[in-house]
Amino acid sequence: MKAVQISKPGGNFEVVERPIPEPGRGQVRIKVEACGICHSDALVKEGVWPGIQYPRVPGHEIAGRIDAVGPDVTLWKKGQRVGVGWHGGHCFQCDPCRRGDFILCQFEKITAIHFDGGYAEYMVAPAEAVAAIPDDLPAAEAAPLLCAGITVFNSLRNSGARAGDTVAVQGIGGLGHLGIQYARQMGFRTVAVGRGKDKEALARKLGAHDYVDTGAGAPADSLQKLGGARVILATAPDSKSISALVDGLAGNGKLLIVGAGFESLTVTPLQLIGQRKGIQGWPSGTAKDSEDTLRFSSLSGVRPMIERYPLEKAAAAYEQMISGKARFRVVLTMNG
């Protein structure tokens, strides 16, 4: 099979020929049809995550079909349309797993970090990491929903916001353009928060009821003029911009962070205490959460805006993503 690998931390993308892998006990083999390129792929490219074994095939937004099943796999059959996201399996034995909270597994496997991912024509995954894809979702559109999609969908549906509440989505990029769509389809009064008047037309096309331009004044003041936000979903990993939104929360409001940045937030206890405001982070979700995301997307018409590249052009596709030029998700397709 053809695959794209990284041979060492900071190395280049290499198009190589590899033997087609065989699924082991409790595993399935997937013939990959599409694989999204996520900013988190930089963890593999640059060797940021400790303990990655190289060479490694990146990619954790995988859509395709079951090609073979290993021993003891009863849930999946050859030919089924499936996907695999960031969560690549769990141990079933640690305390969070015994409570059914698999995403917090202390020994969680991560796709493309603990085993090879989807920048390849075939990949092998644990059966519990696999999600069914609805028939009406094309593979190239389903793939980004398995990381970007599930991250914003699963965080919003667990945020505590109810239909009719004001929900602001900070950032109109790969995560944000999906977050706006999901918020609208969930029945929230949806406010898009971006920089520049030029983004307003797109934000409203995606479903935003209101738009806040952070370049035109303090975004927190604008949100308060709208009554304050029950939830602010922070999708752009800019800690300074995220910190500036805290005062835009309504009483009992929650700043929900899914954009993974490395710099500290600047928030004082007094900003939180008086109105019982809170700050929470949220990871993606399990395979079942992915299925819920895909099914909701199918029913509601939520779709990612994508740019397609053939597998052989993975280096160019990655550069399009990491440079910020992509509008809005980049997807590798195995059929060219």
Give your account of this protein's structure.
- The protein is α/β, with parallel strands linked by helices and 336 residues long.
- The chain has 2 domains: 2-147 and 285-333, Quinone Oxidoreductase, Chain A, domain 1; 159-281, NAD(P)-binding Rossmann-like Domain (Rossmann fold).
- It is 25% helix and 25% strand.
- Strands 3, 4, 5, 6, 7, 14 and 15 form a 7-stranded mixed sheet that branches.
- Helix 3 packs across helix 4 (176-185) and helix 3 (139-157) crosses helix 9 (287-300).
- The model has no long low-confidence stretch (mean pLDDT 97).
Order of helices and strands: EEEHEEHEEHEHEHEHEHEHEHEHE
* Radius of gyration over all CA atoms, rounded: 20 Å
Task: Provide the number of structural domains.
Answer: 2
Sheet/helix structural class: alpha/beta
Q: Architecture of the largest domain in CATH?
A: Alpha-Beta Complex
Which regions have little confidence, pLDDT < 50, spanning 5+ residues? none
Shape: globular
Q: Report the sheet-strand fraction.
A: 25-35%
Topology-level CATH name of the largest domain: Quinone Oxidoreductase, Chain A, domain 1
Biggest beta sheet attributes: 7 strands, mixed
Average pLDDT level: 97
Helix content: 25-40%
Count of alpha and pi helical runs: 10
> Class of the largest domain, according to the CATH hierarchy?
Alpha Beta
Q: Determine the N-to-C terminus distance.
A: 15 Å
Query: What is the name of the CATH superfamily of the largest domain?
Result: Medium-chain alcohol dehydrogenases, catalytic domain
The number of E-state strands comes to 15
